[in-house]
Design brief:
single chain; six-stranded antiparallel sheet; Elongation Factor Tu (Ef-tu), domain 3; 30 strands
Amino acid sequence: MTVIATAGHVDHGKSTLVNFLTGQETDKLAEERSRGLTINLGYTFYEYADQIISIVDVPGHRDFFKNTVAGFSNADAVLFVIDSTQGWSEQSEQHFNALIGLSKLNILFIFTKLDMKESNVDEQWLIDKVSNIKDLNYKILKFNKNSTDKVSFIEDIQTFVSTCTNEYSSFWIDRSFLIDGIGRIVTGTVGSGFSLSGPFITTSGEKLEVKSIESVNKEYTQETGSQRVAVSLKKSSGVIPKRGDLLSNTVLAESIHIFIKLDTESSNEIRNNTLKLFAGTSNHLVEKICPLRIGKETYAIAKLSKPAVLPMKEKMVLHNIDMDSFIACEFMMPINNKNLIKHLIRESKKKASYNTLYDLLYFLPFKYSDHSLRIGQMFTDEANLNLLNQNIKDNAENINKFGIKKYLHEKFYIEEGNVQYLFDAFDDISVKENQIKLNSDNTEEDKKILKLISKELGSELKVPDINLQKFDREIVKNLFLEDKLIRISKNILYTDNHFKELLKIIDQLPTTFTIAEFKSLSGLSRKYTIPILEILDSKQIIKKIDSEGTREKLIS
């Protein structure tokens, strides 16, 4: 089966076109018929060469835009209707931007009302407008309800549909209602990767018991491509699925804070504006959004007006209501860790810029690069793994007092289920009963490697960036374990001799000293100063005592 949605400005002829293709009226409500416009979503279908083609007729009026976007959910292709007497109009632009934002890139543009004397089909203008849209698959057709040959027109549609690709594996509910004697029915467009034979999980995490499934008035059978389905539910524990709910084959986390990727380079487009997020058949007001720059890309942490459950990598669109503009975005992950929320908001306020996501977040629930390392259900890179390894060894005694699971959750935002996987990746640290144990074996080979590393680093505190990967990994781990090597930051590595020089500098400073005083005495730039002071803090040699970075010596 193929599912096609309509799009276009109000009164440009969407419902007329659907009636021509199917012989059915999709405007069911009395108000729709009296006002001559579509308000709710209309569903119908036609058959071609033993194939079923479902159509979702969407409203064109701006007052019903949330229904419009819901109709685009999981459609394989779009019939984009343009009145040849009016041309590209207000909702034409709105619908087009929403479609591109949702990555609905299979579009059949259809010029209508060709029988009117005011008709003017400007194909070249349209081609010029859409030619710069990356990966857009489109075709232009012309339709006249009085003279267009139905068979030829449908063949043109089917030829285009055969070129469409659209992979997704979700099921957004677009209708939920009761039928006397049957019970609760939910409908939606199911993606080709979604298994209806598996358990349904509602937004509350409960399983739904299914009585039967139909597709276009027939018993449902799994097919390639998307399908319109109606699911009859058994009486359950009282959970009533509603429009905007997501059905999933796995349990997904609900969150009011989400991390998203934005298709924009300008943070000004979203700062201090009224925003609404559209995902599937759901929509959410955005109470607060904090953009973050990662390389050439823009990400953001967003706080929604109500908790949401979203599938990974879901294509969504942000509607900037104040500017009436649309920004494409992608769901990256839910955020329920309060410490991580504070971290991301704090970094956004700094307007800091990072090279990669791993510079901002230690762990991600998806593979970010070819160099990603898998830790349970999370991914990280070697630099972060080494940083974490060193941090745990440096603070082992205090961590065991604090509790390793709590420490990792609050400082590195690692969920409890991934803790054991993390320690499985460490050969020199083990964990048992929420306590860590360090093991090392200092050998002559260790000393030899340390000498080579020390030679590359030199004796000055301003050390070069060196590549540790050319040395034996296990020996390097032992050197970190024994504090012979000390990771100051990702690119700053000290030996124990460098660290002794730091302690001499600290000894010369007053009991309470400023960052400027440390910089002046050490002769180091801010690149070195801040991470060095933070390492000294973590080793409880000094302590930060105010927001300006003033330190107090703990060891005399």
